[in-house]
Amino acid sequence: MSPPRRTRIQRRNSETILDAALEVFSAQGFRGATLDQIAEVAGLSKPNLLYYFPSKEAIHLALLSRLLETWLDPLKAMNPDGDPVTEILLYVRRKLELSRDFPRESRLFANEILQGAPRMRRVIETELKDLVAEKARILTRWMEEGRIARLHPVHLIFSIWAMTQHYADFEMQVGTVLGPDEPDPYPEAGLYLDTLFRRLLAV
C-alpha cells in the first residue's frame, strides 16, 4: 500500500523546513545545528517540525540525498562521444555554476566530508566512486587516442572539484580578498578556469 499523498500545505512546509535546515547546517555544521534553530528559521514550532521529520539526522540526510543528485548530474552529463576538450570544459562550467547558484548546498556537502561522511559514506563508496571510475575510463580513452594530454584522470576530476567548489566553500574569503572592485567573482573565474584547463589539456 503506497503512502498517502501529501497536501500542498504539507509539501510547502516540508520545503520550508528543508530550506531553513540548509541555512542552519551550512552555517553551523551538523554538530552545531539544533532542531530549535531550524524550527525558528522555518517559522514553525518544534513539534510541528517533528511531524514532518522525526530527527535532525532525517532532515540532514534528506538534504544530502537531494544535493548529491544535483552534484552528480554534471559529471553524468559528460558525453563519451563528444569532443573531449569541449566536454571537460562544459563540466568545469557546470560545476562553477553549481557553486554560484547553490553555495549553501556546497558548504553542507563539504561539512559532511570534513566530518568523515558519517551519513553519506555508503553513497560515496558506491555511487560516487563508480561514477568517477566510469568517467576516468572515458578520460583515459581520450588520452590514449591522443585527443587530450596524458594526465591522471581521477586527479583531473579532483582538481575540477577543488577549483570550482572553492568559490562556494570559501565564499567569504574570496569576496574579502577580491574586494569591492569585483563583487561577482564568477565571470572572471570562468574565464580563468577555461584558459587554465584548455592549456592543461592541450596535446
What features would you highlight for this structure?
0% strand, Tetracycline Repressor, domain 2, 77% helix, Arc Repressor Mutant, subunit A, 203 residues, mainly alpha, single chain, 2 domains
Q: Give the CATH architecture of the largest domain.
A: Orthogonal Bundle
User: How many discrete domains?
Assistant: 2
Task: Give the ordered list of helices and strands.
Answer: HHHHHHHHHH
Structural class: mainly alpha
What is the β-strand count?
Answer: 0
- Could you tell me the CATH topology label of the largest domain: Tetracycline Repressor, domain 2
CATH class of the largest domain: Mainly Alpha
The residue-averaged pLDDT reads 92
Binned, the helix content reads over 70%
- Give the percentage of residues in beta strands: under 5%
**Uncertain residue ranges:** none
GO molecular function: DNA-binding transcription factor activity; transcription cis-regulatory region binding
Organism: Cereibacter sphaeroides
Domain HTH tetR-type: 11-71
Protein name: TetR family transcriptional regulator
Can you walk through the features of this model?
The chain has helices at 8-32, 35-42, 46-52, 56-76, 84-101, 103-114, 121-144, 153-169, 171-178, 186-201. The protein folds into 2 domains: 1-54, Arc Repressor Mutant, subunit A, CATH 1.10.10; 64-201, Tetracycline Repressor, domain 2 (Orthogonal Bundle), CATH 1.10.357. The protein is globular. 77% of the residues lie in helices and 0% in strands. The protein is an all-alpha fold and 203 residues long. The longest helix has 25 residues, at 8-32.
